[in-house]
Each structure stands twice: as structure tokens, then as C-alpha cells.
Amino acid sequence: MTASAASPDALREEALAALSEATDEPALERWRAGWLGRQDGRVTLLLRAVREQPPEQRAAFGQAANAVKQTLEAALAERQESLKQAALKALSTTAALDVTLPGRPQAIGRLHPVTQTLRDCIKAFQEMGFRVAEGPEVEWSAYNFDAMRSPEDHPARDMWDTIWVDTLLNGERKMLLRTHTSPNQARVMERTPEPPVRVIVPGKCYRQEATDATHEWMLTQIEGLAVDEGVRMSDLKGVLYEFARKMFGQDRKVIFHHSYFPFVEPGVEMAMDCFICRGSGAECRTCHGTGWIEILGAGMVHPEIIENAGYDSSKVTGFAFGLGVERVALLRWGIEDIRHFYANDLRFLGQF
Amino acid sequence: MKLLLSWLREFVDVDLPVPELARRLIDATAEVEGWETIGAGWDPERIRVAQVVAVEPHPNADRLRLATVETGSGLQQVVCGAPNIAAGQKVAFATEGAVLIDGHTGETAKLKLRPIRGVESAGMVLSEKELGLSDSHEGILVLPDDAVVGRPLVEQLGDVLFDISTWANRADLLGVLGLAREVSALVSRPLREPSTEYSEAGPPTESLASVTVQDPDLCPRFMVSVIQDVTLGPSPAWMQERLLRHGMRPINNVVDITNYVMIETGQPLHAFDYDLVRGKQLIARRAVPGEKLVTLDGVEREFDGQMVLVCDGEGPVSVAGVMGGGNSEVSESTRTILLEAANWVPGNIRRTSMYLKLRSEASLRFEKGLGPEMAEFALKRALHLFEQLTGGTVSRGVIDVYPGKRPPRTIILPAARIEQVLGYAIGPDEVRRILSDLGFLCHHLPPDRYSVQPPYWRPDVLIADDLIEDVARIHGYDKLPATKLRGSLPEPEPRPVEDLRERVRDLAVGLGFQEIITYSLTEKQKLERVVAPGDVRRMAPLSVVNPVAARHTYLRTSLRAGLLETYAANRRQHDGPLRMFEVGQEFLPVEADLPHERKVFCALAGGTREARWAKAGDDRLDFFDAKGAAEAVLGALGVPGTFAAANEFGLLEGHTARVASGKQPVGVVAQVHPDTAAAFDIDEPVFMVELWLEDLVRVLPERPAYLAPSRFPEMRHDLALLIDTATPAVRLVDIVRSHRSGTVRITADIFDEYRGRGVPEGKKSLAVAVRYQAEDRTLTDEEVARIETGLLKRLEKELGAVRR
Ligand SMILES: [Zn+2]
To answer: Of B341, B373, B340, whose CA–CA distance to B457 is shortest?
Structure first.
């Protein structure tokens, strides 16, 4: 019996029965090709067989054959849709993931915590109009000390244990690793013929010092300098207050107490209230129970330094401060040992 | 500097609680590092002053005695083993339950009374050790006669010992009196100076000794006095006690007085045995280079021509301002004292003590700058004590050679300057009050100036702003308002290299690299592993004289060593990929100038790629990962980079590319030579990117070249081309890019390289994605095919490339 011989109704029933047995996409495709394929699908052949029918039956046969085709196409579409739904259902059930398995590691880099802290500090001061400059790490003694009113044989030199570079110029040792960023006060003013000066100078400094949990021989400082007519010590307090609030929280308080640096007069140290215990912790590790944390040294630029810059110290005043960036980083993250910073253990660095 | 509260209270009435006093001192004067409460554990109920009324033998023990003591609330009998107990003594008496330190074990325990050899004891007469005052357990502590019977011992003997760090400009604060002056100003209470009264007798001092100051530029003042018929012996208990508390060992009454007066006033003194001073003369002069003296510590010192000595008629007897000589030391047989009170130029004393590595209590004070008038006060104070405590006779008059005498300084302080500097005004009454309390003579010159004479002990005060500091700190910085900076902003300075450095930092982080910061100082042998022997500058790094450790002696001339070290150290802790970078400075020596601090970016990568669980494989990072990172950085900066094979020291040949932009070399990408890596204990392939920021900035475009995205689709056609293995792939890419066909833009990206089966010997197959883009139309397949035919012809002609 040929396809053309089968009645449309019988063909339809046979096709639908076969469709119900196709349970996946390839089987459906095979079924489609077998029944509805353009070349030799059995329904296609059926439609071609219209011409073979006696003329009086052609119309009815044609109608019946078309109806079979439409029925089968609709059945196929329905079957495809239900299989798709079943597959989606399976994705959510049998193929559901254990979402507690770990994600695949991605390469992620981080800035060193000192860089992060340095940037945050710089940003805080830039928002207050401070420019940024840098200066050499290997420095002349003349800038590091003499220009900062700490000539040789001055007891203030005890404040900075110096690492000297092994070179002689005219028989004298003049080159050193800067012990602080303060020489840049002189350097910046030197290249600024007229005030205003409002600058911060970040950079590394070096001390001939034994290291322990709170001391490191290489350190990062930020020097601040504002020089102009009308710059007052109260402005210094305002700037540092703003800084403390930006770095350690809006409710910070700051106090000044007396200090001495040869290049400022008056000289102060700034402390802020302890943001960990808020002054209530006798056992507080951060402030040692004092309620206050020493942050930095500061003061009004000594008139002699203003004069050396070529400014008139009776009109022009200025303030300066020096901030230890590692100390800020230690405080903000509660790090217990400063030596972690330059040990570069990724188990440490990867946490920031 | 130590400070005993009881000593301070001799000079000023201060009843602030101790923490409050410490805080006020910190705020205004000096750093109080801490304090120790003496007698903190003494129970005021159970440990009190008592008086020994009678001492009798113990009926059952030869070495014990029975003492009857008046406790203030009745007589008590105690058993006592101390040999020094005697009737009439004031003693410390403890009753049952008092917490004491056991004289034998040194442990703290509550006193439990029990009969001793059959005799009840009502309490215990205490030794210094039992009170924690010292280790002395030889005998009982005998209190001064004026001790009040029945008074809690803590009130009688309790004290507070502050540990104070003073600032480098305040020699006067290295004396109790100086600190008392500060406290007096802080609490607005009057200062009581100690007595300097004494009587003179015997011959004039000038007939007994003479003084010559040969180098007045280094010795502003030299005073001496002579004390005859001194009875050498121990100094009184109260003096010894105070010296011990201040860290000085009591020696004898003469030496103790000089030390005591130094602690009290800040002015060091020196006592010579008069009979050992040859020629009875003292000469202050520069040393003859090579001159020697054995100092009091028994060490022979040799001097240079800048150091000042005090000499007698025959030679050196003291290193001026630093330490006396052994040849004129006061001893048991001393009968007559030649007492020196001098003033020395601070810088010179500091230099001498540094060069001799001999920093004494005296030199620490002189180097900070003592006022020359302090010598006179201290000398008189010492003479008062000599008269009181040694039985000696003070000769008539003092010898006072005073070449450095200056009229008192007067500083004009304009009232407006206070507000100009501080930002707020302090009224004339308060200004005068503070300055007067600190010992300044202050006159208000209405309407708007002060005329101020600093006291002799304040040589640090030289200008108006020094006065403003004194006023501000005593007035209290808590009163300083916080204001906003006013005025105009300065011009910004361009910082192209620094700006680039920060961009590169961010890019490297974005590419998965961890920033590290290594020390700028390293070892020469580590630098030699990464620096080419022919690189003269980098092979001659600057060294430092006094490194913190030998491994931090040389200023690095390359970042590579530090990174490799860090890589190796972290490899011990981590499997998987390591990616790290540092942005730092090479210190390249420059003749007779500061080194060139060359800013460099250096990164390392190596190890297996990120572990991909559920996907097998141990795919390693390789050269092309490093190169990809370099390309990504350059691409993000808008710098067109070229890579050419290169050969460099420490890097693996055939795996090294010099990075350039145009003619400007900007860095290198390479596999670190396995031998170099091995020298740093790295036994895996490790890849490096180095970018030279100062070179890179020269080719950095101000802004990236912008091309509007086309509205028309791009056509992509992949080709597989065979070329000679020796031909760099980049030539193929360059030819494609340079190919022109009307307005059609053509680019090529190589996405695979293949050699082996199916590819003829000596050839490699490159898979290239060629993209065609017209700005004004959608290209047709025919058009693309036509352009491709032309392109393939050209590739064949110029490179011998054929389709595979
Ligand atoms: Zn705290």
C-alpha cells in the first residue's frame, strides 16, 4: 500500500500516534521530516496525490489532506512547546545546581593598604583646596635639616635618626634619606615666588630606627603647608578637624597640645578622641585607655622659614603639619603590627 | 626626666588629681609618659606611722627583740628581728591583714600574726623591702623625726613619680624647679624658690684658686667657689631617696649635692678635690688634638681640637660639660672642694658627647642650651646645701668669669600679632598673667604692644612668636577655635608622571595584580642578579653609611629584585596564580648630585591559572598573559605599543620583547630567565612586565583618539594563512591594517597559531579574523570578496603567505 492509497483520516491517526512517542528534539525532527518533510513527508505525498484522484473527488480529498496537514502542524507545535516546558522544568529540578559550591576564582587585584590610605588622605586635603607635590627621597642635609632650623649639633636632630648616604661632597657628608617630608616646605616655597601656598607633599621617609610593632624604618608621610596672608593657627585646627572627620567619622573631636619642632612656632601635636572606645575603655588597645589618639605634629611655620622663602613674615603666616600614613592605616583597620605593611604577605594584603 | 610629686610640691602648691596634673602638663608643657604611685598598695588603715618607745630582749631568742610601739591609738608590743631598731625611732607599723611584700620570698601576701618563739606580736615594724620601696631587708625603715604618729604611711611617705619627656628646646625643664614654674603658671599659684642662703667665711676664693677662660666663644661663663673642711660621708636619707628615684646612685654628700642641685635646677655642677687640682687653677680651653683624659667612668678619652676641656695647671681634669676626670675625683680623703658651675655653648657640647659617644646627664642639659645665669643660681643653691650638709666653710666671694654676659633681651610683642598667628585674641590681663607666672617681665605698652624680657632660664625665647606660643599653651589650646582657611588657591603644578603613575596603578589592579610596596634599600648581590653587568649606573648603586640591617644597604637601581623576592616568599604560601606589581623608584646615581629617582612600574605573573573546579587542567600563565597585561595598560592609556624580540640580561632569550611606542622604548615584557628566578628561589616560569613611566609619559596622548561608532555593520571573515615560522606575526597584521580599499577600514586580529601535522615544515598557520568596515554603507559579500582577493595577493607577494 502506498502513502497515496491511505485515507487522510487513517494517516492522521497514525501520525498522531507516532508523535506521541517522540519524546525529545531529535525524535520530533525525525517525525517532522517523516510526515511533513518537503521532499517526501507522507503528508506532503498525500497532498501531491490530490492530482491522482478522480476529478470529482479531488476537492474533497484536497480539503481532507490539508486538514490533516494543519492538524499535524498544530500537534507538532504543541508537542514542541510541551517538551520545552518539560526541559525547563528539568533544569529547575533534576538539573538544579548546588549553589553552595564555590564560585570560580577570578583574578582580582588590590591597591596596597598604604596606597589606599594615602589616596584617601590626599583626597581629604584636596577637597580643602590643597595641591599635591612631591619631592626627592634622597635629600640634601641642607633641606632636610638646615632649612628646617635643625643645624648640625642641634639637639632637635635627636628627633630623627638619620640614614646617611655614603657619598662625600667636598669632603663632607651631605646626602641622606629624608627623615621627614618637611624639607619640601622649603622646596615648594622656593619655587613659589609669591604666596599663596597650599600644598600637601606625600612620600616615603626613612629612619635609622629599630623596628617593632609600632615602628618601621621606612614610612610614608604627608606634609601639609598653607602659607598666605591671614593664615591662622585656628585654620590649622579647622583643616585637621575636617581631616579627622573625613577619615575617622563625622563625630570626631580633635585637641591640640604643646609640642616642639624647630621649624614651627607655636608647635603642637594633634590628638583625636578614640573612635573605638569613644573615651570609655580603660582597656582600649587603640588609645591605651586615655581616650585620645595622637595623630600628627603641626604648627605655625617659623617666621625665619617664611623670611627665607622671600616672603614678609610680618604679613605672611603659615601652618604646616606632618602626618604618618601607616599610623592612619593601622588605626582605621585595627592592624596590630606596622611591620605587616612592607612584609608584602598576600594573606595580609589581600584583605584590604 | 623623672619628677617626684613631693619635690614639685616643695616649690608650688598643687592639689590637682594626678591624672589631671599629667593632662595639664601634656597639654601645655611636656610629654608625660606615665607615672608610678609609690605606696599605692599601702592600706591606710593597717599601715601607719608609729614610734618605738622601748626595746627589750626576747625572753626565748637571742636575735629577736621585743619592742613597745606607740601606734597613736595605744601601746602595742611586737617581736622584731631588725638589728637597727632603737627607742625613739619613728617607724612604719603594720597590723594584721595589711598587704606586704614578703622580705624573703618577694611575694605579696597578707600579714598574718602568730606568736613568735612563744611571744604574741601585735603587728610588724616594716623594712623598705616589705613596703616595696627597695630591696633592702637589712633593717627596718626609719622615718624622719617629724613623722606624725598614727598617720597613715601612705600620707607620710606616699608619692608619685612621673616619667616626663621634655622637648629639645627646654633645658630648664630638665630641673624640678623648671617644671614647678610651668605648674605654677598652669594652676596660677605662686612659686617658692629653694633657699640659696649661706654664709661665707675663711679666705677669699680668689686667693685659693684662679680661673682662665681661654676660649670664650665656647665658654660663656665659668664660676667657682671653694668649700673648706668638708666632712665626707653619706648624704641624708631624704637626699639619697630622691636621687634614687631620679635614677642616680648616691655616692657621698659632696657628689650627691651636685647631682641633687642639677636635678633641682637643671644646671650641672662639678666638684673637684681641691688638693688634686694642680696649680689651684682651672683653665677652659679647646683641647690640643690627641690630648687624653681618663674620665670618671674609667675610660680613657682622646680629644680633637673642637672639644673643650677644663684643665688645671698641668693638664685636663674634666671634659667640659660632659664628664669629670678621674684625676681630680672627690674621694674619702677629700677635705676641700673646688666647685665649678659653668655654661657651655650647646652645639659644641652636643658634638663632643656625640663624637665621644658619651652622653651624660650633664651633656644632655648643656646641649639643649642653659641660660648662663642659671650657673649662678645653682652654685648658690649648692653652697647652701654644702653649708647645711657637709659642715664645710664656704670661702668668701665666688670667682665669676663671664665673657658671654649679655644685656637682657627685650622682645616687642604687638598685641595684634597674637590674633594674626592664633586666629583669636587673648586679652592683656591674661597675657601679662601668663608671662609673669612663667617668669617674664612683661609691660603692656598701650594701646597695642607688649615689651617682654624673658627670664634667664629661657634662652629659647627669641621672637614674638615664641611668646605667643607660651601664652597660647598656658592659656590652653582647647580655647583655640577651628576655622576655615580663607583666601585664594594657588596655581596647580602639572604632574604628568605622577598622574600617569596613579592611572597605571589602577589599571594594574583592574587586571588582577596585587600592589606591593618593598623597601627602597636592598643588597648589592640581589641587584647584581637582575642588572646587566654592563649597566654602569645600575651596577654602582648608592649605599648608606648606617643601614638598619646589612640587607638594606644599597638604594635599589631596579625594582625587579624586590618583586622576585616577594614572589618567592608568597609562592611558599600560595598555589595557583600570583600576580603582583610595584610602582616605585629606581635610584640612579648622578655625579655630585642627588640620584635620579626614576619612576617605574614592574609586575610579575606566574603559576597555574585560577583553579577551575569541575574543569580539569593545569594551564599556566605564560608570556602572552604578561604581554596581554602590557597591551591592556597601553590600550587603556591610548598609547599604541609595538613589541619586538629583544635580548636582555636576566630575561629569557626568545621570550623577551621590548615595548615601544613609535621610536620611544617604554618597557619590556619577558619571561624572567629561569636561572635568575632560581637565584631568588623561584622554580617555575615567571613573567614580567616593566613600564618606564618617565618614558611612557612622552608618548601619552593628551586624550584618546576618538572614532564615532559606525552605523553600518562590520563584516568579519576568518582566514587561515601559512607563513614562514621566522616571520613575526605582527608583519601580517601590519600589512592587513595598512591595506586600503577606498574608504573601507580593514583590521586583523590573530586568534591562533598552529604548527605541526598538516602544516609544512618551516611554516606556521595563523588564524586571522579580518574585519571590514565602511563608514557610509553596508558592505556586500561581493565587495568583501573582492577586497579580500586583493589583500591575499598582497600577502602572498610581501610575506609569501598562502591560504591553508
Ligand atoms: Zn580607646
So the answer is: B373
Specify the CATH number for B715-803; select among 3.40.630.20, 3.40.50.720, 3.30.70.380, 3.40.50.300.
Answer: 3.30.70.380
Note the pTM of the prediction, 2 decimals: 0.87
**Does B2-39+160-187 match B411-478 in CATH topology?**
yes
Residue B477 near residue A241 (C-beta atoms within 8 A): no
* Angle, CA B442 vertex, CA B438 and CA B448 arms, to 5°: 130
Q: Which CATH architecture has domain B2-39+160-187?
A: 2-Layer Sandwich (3.30)
The superfamily in CATH containing domain B47-157 is Nucleic acid-binding proteins (2.40.50.140)
End-to-end CA distance of chain B: 89
CA–CA dist B305, B358 (Å, integer): 17
Which domains are delineated in chain A? 8-94 (no CATH), 113-349 (3.30.930.10)
To the nearest whole Å, the CA of A88 is away from the closest chain B CA by 23
Render pLDDT for B412-434 as a digit per residue (tens, 0 to 9).
999 999 999 999 999 999 999 99
Say yes or no for a CB contact (<8 Å) between A258 and B367. no
Q: Which amino acid is at A187?
A: R
Distance of alpha carbon A243 from alpha carbon A234, whole angstroms: 14
| Minimal-distance CA residue of chain B relative to A238 | B482
Is the CB of residue B555 less than 8 Å away from at least one CB of chain A? yes
Query: Could you say which residues of chain B have pLDDT below 70?
Result: 611-618
Contact between B47 and B96 under an 8 Å Cβ cutoff? The reply is no
Nearest Cα to Cα of residue B72 among B169, B150, B147: B150
Distance from CA of A10 to the nearest CA of B (A): 49
**Rounded Cα distance, A304 and A306, in Å:** 5
Cell numbers standing for residue B761: 615544515
Summarised one tens digit per residue, pLDDT across range B315-358 is 999 999 999 999 999 999 999 999 999 999 999 999 999 999 99
Q: Are strands A163-164 and A175-177 parallel, antiparallel or unpaired?
A: antiparallel
Mutate to test the interface with A, among B465, B573, B633 (most CBs of A within 10 A): B465
ipTM above 0.85, yes or no: yes
